[in-house]
Amino acid sequence: MDKPSHLSIVLDLSPKQWHLAAQPGSPHPITLATFLSHLLAFLNAHIACKDENSLAIFGALPGKSILLYSSAAPVDDGDTEPADANTYRPFKLMDSIIMKSITREIDALGEPETEEPIGFVGALTKALCYINRVTTSNTTSGDRGVDPATLPDPRILIISVSPDQSSSYISVMNSIFSAQKLASFDLFYQKVTIDVCKIFGAESVFLQQAAHLTGGSYIDVDRPDALLQYLMMSFLAPPGLRQLITVPTQDKIDFRAACFCHKNIVDIAFICSVCLSIFCSPVPVCSTCRTKFPIKTLQRLNASRPNTTPGTPRPPTPANSLPRSTSIAPQSLPRSTSIVPQSLPRNASNGASTLR
Amino acid sequence: MLDDEDEPSVRKVKGKGKATDGRKRDKGKSKAKEQPYAWEATYTRSWDTVQEDEAGSLQTTVRDLIARSRRRRLIGPASAIRRTIIRHLVLILDLSASMTDRDMRPTRFDLMLQYAREFVNEWFDQNPLGQIGIVGMRGGIGERIGEISSNPQDVLKAISERHKLEPAGEPSLQNAIDMARSGMRQEITIIFGSLTTCDPGNIHDTLDECVKDKIRISVVALAAEMKICRELCVKTGGQFGVALNEGHFKDLLFELIPPPAQRALARASGPGANPAADLMLMGFPTRLPATSPPGLCACHGELKSEGFLCPRCAAQVCDVPTDCAVCGLMIVSSPHLARSYHHLFPARPYHAVMALDEASAPSATCHACAAPFQEKASQAGAPASEGVSPLGRYRCSACARDFCADCDVFVHDVLHCCPGCGK
Amino acid sequence: METSSSDTPSHLLLAFLHSQSQTALTRLYQRPSACLSIFRLLGPLERQIVMNLLWLESVIPAATMAAWVPQDSRQAYEHSLSILSRLHLLPRSAAKLALNSTLKTGLRHAIVGGGSSGSFGVPANSDESHPPPSVETLDAYALERWETILHYMVSSGTGRSPTKPSQAVLVLLQRSGLMASVHGGALQITSLGFQFLLHPPHAQLWELLLQYLRMVEERQMDLVEVLSFLFMLSTMELGREYSVEHLSATQTAMLEDLRDYGIIWQRKTSPTRFCPTRLATTLTSSSPPLPTAAGVTSSSQAQGFIILETNYRLYAYTDNPLQTAVLNLFVSLKSRFPNLVVGAITRESVKKALANGITADQIISYLTTHAHPQMRKNKPLLPVTVQDQIRLWELEKNRMKSQEGYLYTAFASQADYEYVLHYAKQLGVVLWESSPRRCFFGTLEGHPNIRGFIERRTAGHA
């Protein structure tokens, strides 16, 4: 049970979002520097738990993704950091490498007019590929006969500040499924747990699903000063230990999806029966498999649709899109109101701060 | 022995050699090659292709062979073809006395149960909105073992209790097929270990009924080919195969997992051809945690805290997929749908890099897993024509990044999304 | 290394620390390196509890923490809490949970840096004329030292005379009961010693170090200094030289001992600096502490070299005399090749091992841990027939059971006999009876009652 564990971190480094997060007007202001100091303490704690624990950090930057640090990579012995009697040297080396690579990448960004979408999918898929490499006793690299018991337990921690990119819906879902499947080639079934730490920004539908489907936890940090405690309580324990001491998980999981036609996140959609493509409005021909739909269906669906004009994006929050049908079950009313406070106070506090 | 082919007789003939006669072998057995016996499996005549490297070691060659065999699977059609995604399958298991034979280890019966479990798991992964029912053939009748269900756990539970499925008596194809095709079923897959069938009437009538109902029957035989089995498959458009050994058995069974291309549709891809194709309205719910305040569910009227909220009317339902009891909306979990999208948008295949182009400043490590590439081409000397890169580099044509062989396989088999371009 | 069972802590050393006073432990926790090392020796659940509490400034009610523990793992949780409180990391059975403040400071310093204790070792300035030794040199040195000790032990009974380890090591071996001098003669390995040989290297190392710690008091050394030096070594970097200047007198005195065990390396010409070897730096981890047999480059040795077949034949891919000697304890070796030893497990060879005090479970666990990677594909790893047979051979040894008691005989009449026997049976103390001979055997515990009964009876007759 006391197996080494591998932690891959997908770190969202969108400059724009971090800038917004650091604004005093944001609900829970936190700067990137403060955050990184908490994160480094967390990473040190991960390595401190067991000497064999391994770590890889993938950065998601505008338009690209990159491996920032890997504990498997050989340390280039430039002796940049003088040895010091007061710190544990592996920690010091790791911290300095991580900080250097993050600084290097952010400096290299420059100041473009518009920020490209961040390479979140790239970072996530790379993390999976990396885990695939370290956990499967791969035949091609020549490491024959590695005892599967000594292979590390893998998991992924996503640290997110950006909103969902609906265009990457399919890719994110594919990643989730491969995380579920990964390592199931082995004799014993295990999956890669995906934990999500949402530092800033609206609730992420896709990441909620990712955490739910892989048995991880989704934490929306609402007290940045206690960030370290969040990290330690929720994300330090490897999956095996979480049966003994449970970790906080999310309340609601939003199963909404993104449509293929306008990349809107929808809660009610039109599905092609042949290929299961999702559309936000009735279309005569499926754009994916070229199936033509019967005209009667189109008329029926158009008639029964809620009164939104075709093509307009559905309001993202389910609370707003609830047509009050006559026969609402009695228990549904408090429920729907309980959804609202999640989004309302935040808007209200935003509004309040701008008013002042 | 070969005469068996023409008369599905009651004669019991054992042994595997006969099933491998070239004439009898089926199209679905490309992987088996000419291996009549289990102990002749693995690399056939591998010594012909093996060459020592400069250090006199065989390791590079062996690695090369493995890489090649893994890669062979990847070379397939790149374009998205239309498949049925909502499938209904009945899996018919032979539970007759012939399954206690030990020619497959540990016994045919245990192996079948093990593979059936793996089959169900994999099948639901690839056919998210499908349903599976299980029927057993035992003592001359068909037995309903698992009701048709869309929940993998239910199906697995049905075949998990070994002692309830102890093989006995004679099988009856006709009874089992008749039981399986009651209701609206599209496909029947039969695992058949016996060489006899003990039927109450004319099985050809049953076959004609199946053809009429457009039910596709596939058979994986464990003993030898029987003419009636082949006929069932050929006439209904299914696949037939005789398992040579344990591995081949699994291959045959797993070939039935991917959704079959809809031939009928492809032929008539003209205007408005498919009467079954339709646009459906579905809702994606919100899941309530166990810690939420309990509410009455709309389906059973019970007080529950866990459940799903209908996105249209906010009624609480116990389980998905279902139709909302209040507003009638079909509620599905969107991940269920998304499970099948990799069929629609497969990752673009990578092409093998044959030689390094100095001008492009190649990266030193794999773009996905950061494993370093080997410096120079492997000296295995085998012709590098089969899509195997001598450098161990595979390049995405969209983003022009290099990936290692492990990641190549992983990306296309599991991930279905290129880490370089995210498509 | 050890799997945590229900009542023992996860590491040998923790049991030792439990017996130490609170003041000694608190002094120990002042050093971040010691905090880190002890933290690593804890079990996974204990580590998580410590980490959950480490960053809290205030005390939290125990109930809050317990709310995170599901009902069925409550027992494991309580057990972890008791381990922590015995280490004086947590207050014993209080309603509030808070970490020992000394440890809290120390561990925080270890993780985020800071402090000025210098507990991770002061590196020596680089010396142009003496470059630090390469990792290979250190590994070879550590291996040579360690195998000298083991080899001395294993061949002590055979009459051959391998190189003797230093006097200090011999004393340690004798004191720990691994070797004993018979009739004042040369040291002979004891049955404890045979068991020791079959342990994994990590456990061996800690067993010796624990014995060393137990001897510390009588040598007038400060236990805390010794412990903290060991922990400092475990957090040092392999292949780096450290200065002895900042060490206390006790610690400087330890240098020589540790050098004999192969835990540190020192150049003869420069006694002011030292290098930890892999034995030292892996003290608190579970990676292999020994760099495998000398000269063998592949890591396959670390993963095992033994192939055992169902016909009791055993093939060991090794050229290491120590490994061969250890195998010789319970295998009858048939032939030796440059890299292969062939033998068979026979009744005689196992009985010899059992006579030496080795248990069947130890043999089986040795074979399991050193199984060749090829064997790992088997399930179960070792052939069941062989495992069962070894256990049966052990049972053969235990065919006779002795029990103290009293024989009651010479009853006057059959009725007398039966009357007493009936009483004894009611008490459940009869072990054996023979009606024709009118005698039975009762346990020691039952004797006073039976005697009293007989006496009362005879008195009644009289």
From TrEMBL, chain A:
Keyword tRNA processing part of the UniProt annotation: no
GO biological process: nucleotide-excision repair; regulation of DNA-templated transcription
Keyword Transmembrane attributed: no
Gene3D superfamilies (UniProt xref): von Willebrand factor, type A domain
Superkingdom: Eukaryota
Family: Belongs to the TFB4 family.
InterPro entries registered for this protein in UniProt: TFIIH_Tfb4/GTF2H3, vWFA_dom_sf
Region (Disordered), start-end ranges: 300-356
A GO CC term attached to the entry: transcription factor TFIIH holo complex
Function (record text): Component of the general transcription and DNA repair factor IIH (TFIIH) core complex, which is involved in general and transcription-coupled nucleotide excision repair (NER) of damaged DNA and, when complexed to TFIIK, in RNA transcription by RNA polymerase II. In NER, TFIIH acts by opening DNA around the lesion to allow the excision of the damaged oligonucleotide and its replacement by a new DNA fragment. In transcription, TFIIH has an essential role in transcription initiation.
Matches recorded under PANTHER family: GENERAL TRANSCRIPTION FACTOR IIH SUBUNIT 3, TRANSCRIPTION INITIATION FACTOR IIH TFIIH , POLYPEPTIDE 3-RELATED
This protein's name: General transcription and DNA repair factor IIH subunit TFB4
Keyword terms, alphabetized: DNA damage, DNA repair, Metal-binding, Nucleus, Transcription, Transcription regulation, Zinc, Zinc-finger
Subcellular localization: Nucleus
Single Gene Ontology MF annotation: zinc ion binding
Subunit structure: Component of the 7-subunit TFIIH core complex composed of XPB/SSL2, XPD/RAD3, SSL1, TFB1, TFB2, TFB4 and TFB5, which is active in NER. The core complex associates with the 3-subunit CTD-kinase module TFIIK composed of CCL1, KIN28 and TFB3 to form the 10-subunit holoenzyme (holo-TFIIH) active in transcription.
Regions of compositional bias (Polar residues) in chain numbering: 319-356
UniProtKB/TrEMBL annotation, chain B:
PANTHER family the UniProt entry points to: GENERAL TRANSCRIPTION FACTOR IIH SUBUNIT 2, GENERAL TRANSCRIPTION FACTOR IIH SUBUNIT 2-RELATED
Domain C2H2-type span(s) in chain numbering: 396-416
Region of interest called Disordered, as start-end residue ranges on this chain: 1-35
InterPro entries: C1-like_sf, Ssl1-like, TFIIH_C1-like_dom, TFIIH_SSL1/p44, VWF_A, vWFA_dom_sf, Znf_C2H2_type, Znf_RING/FYVE/PHD
Annotated SMART domains: C1_4, VWA
Zinc finger (C4-type): 310-327
Keywords: DNA damage, DNA repair, Metal-binding, Nucleus, Transcription, Transcription regulation, Zinc, Zinc-finger
Family assignment from sequence similarity: Belongs to the GTF2H2 family.
Biased composition (Basic and acidic residues): 18-34
A single BP term in Gene Ontology: regulation of transcription by RNA polymerase II
Subcellular location: Nucleus
Protein name from the UniProt record: General transcription and DNA repair factor IIH
The keyword Zinc belongs to this UniProt entry's keyword annotation: yes
Origin: domain of life: Eukaryota
Alphabetical list of SUPFAM superfamilies matching this protein: Cysteine-rich domain (SSF57889), vWA-like (SSF53300)
Function comment: Component of the general transcription and DNA repair factor IIH (TFIIH) core complex, which is involved in general and transcription-coupled nucleotide excision repair (NER) of damaged DNA and, when complexed to TFIIK, in RNA transcription by RNA polymerase II.
TrEMBL record, chain C:
Any GO CC annotation of this UniProt entry: transcription factor TFIIH core complex
Pfam families on file: Tfb2, Tfb2_C
Transcription as UniProt keyword: yes
UniProt GO BP: nucleotide-excision repair; transcription by RNA polymerase II
All residue ranges annotated as the Transcription factor Tfb2 C-terminal domain in the record: 388-454
Transmembrane segments: none
Keyword tags: DNA damage, DNA repair, Nucleus, Transcription, Transcription regulation
Coiled coil (UniProt feature): none
Keyword DNA repair attributed: yes
Compartments in which it is found: Nucleus
InterPro entries (UniProt xref): Tfb2_C, TFIIH_p52/Tfb2
A single GO molecular function term of this UniProt record: ATPase activator activity
Function of the protein: Component of the general transcription and DNA repair factor IIH (TFIIH) core complex which is involved in general and transcription-coupled nucleotide excision repair (NER) of damaged DNA. Component of the general transcription and DNA repair factor IIH (TFIIH) core complex, which is involved in general and transcription-coupled nucleotide excision repair (NER) of damaged DNA and, when complexed to TFIIK, in RNA transcription by RNA polymerase II. In NER, TFIIH acts by opening DNA around the lesion to allow the excision of the damaged oligonucleotide and its replacement by a new DNA fragment. In transcription, TFIIH has an essential role in transcription initiation.
Similarity comment text for this entry: Belongs to the TFB2 family.
Protein name: RNA polymerase II transcription factor B subunit 2
